[in-house]
Every structure is written in C-alpha cells, then in structure tokens.
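Sample log: SMI1/KNR4 family protein.
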Amino acid sequence: MNEIKKSISLWQLNDNYLSFLGKFKEIEITPDIIIFGYETALKENQYLHENYPEISEKVWIIGRTGQGDEWFVNKTKNNILFYDHNQGEYLNINQFLDMKINFENFLKIAFSYQQLEEELDMHEELNEVEQDQFKKLVNSINDGLYERYPFKYF
C-alpha cells in the first residue's frame, strides 16, 4: 500500500480505499457500481487533473456506472460522491451528490444491492415487507441512504 500512496500521492485518501486499489482489479459489483482498479484509477484521475484541475483538487474518481455516471471520493472528507453524467461537464463541486458514507460503507451498500439484484433475478419482485426490510438494511448503514441512492429499485 505504501507504494500506491507514493505513486499517486494519495496521502489524504482513506486507507481502506488504497488497500482495495492494491488488492483488486476493476470490479463490477452491480451494473450501477463498477470500481476501478489501480491502472484505470490513475488514468481517469490524470484526465480529470488535466481537464478539470479545480475539481480534481477536491475529488478522486473511483468508478462509474454502466450508464456513464461516476463515483468519487471527496479528498478532504473521504466521503463518496455521485455524479450524474446528464449534467455535462464538471463545473462545480455542488453538482456532486454527497452519499454521506465512506468507502467501506460504499462497499456495504454495493454488496447489499448485489444481493438484491440476485434476489430479483430469482423472484422478479419483492413483496412490501421484503422491500421495507431492504430499505431498513440500507438505512442502517447511514440514515436516509436508501433515499439518497441515485437508482431506485422499488
């Protein structure tokens, strides 16, 4: 992990994220959560730095969705941000949706949604009780997280 920190000067980013970068290649947890591996993260953040230097001082891109939206880490708060690509170019940090969770909790919701998708593949839909249980599970990670999550399932 120290080599990763040195090579990309990420001393301010969360150690859990840096550890993830050192251990895993790009991974699609759900179609809406694809987390970059080391090489892609470097390339994407270099592009961000060259083309949007003011934004790149504040955020580090960690992944994207299958539709082209993107996931970021706020460099000072270490919280996850979501960017809807329909907004066009990155003009202001206020365009980013603050998920109010760290990288570790981001992985928790990613795998929760992965489980949900597997369940929906088998049963097509969940009853109201099961839906409420899922919402409570997501909100147990962070209050209001289900409502903030940019993709609605039910």
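Observation: The CA atoms of residues 62 and 72 lie 5 Å apart.
Observation: The first strand starts at residue 27 and ends at 30.
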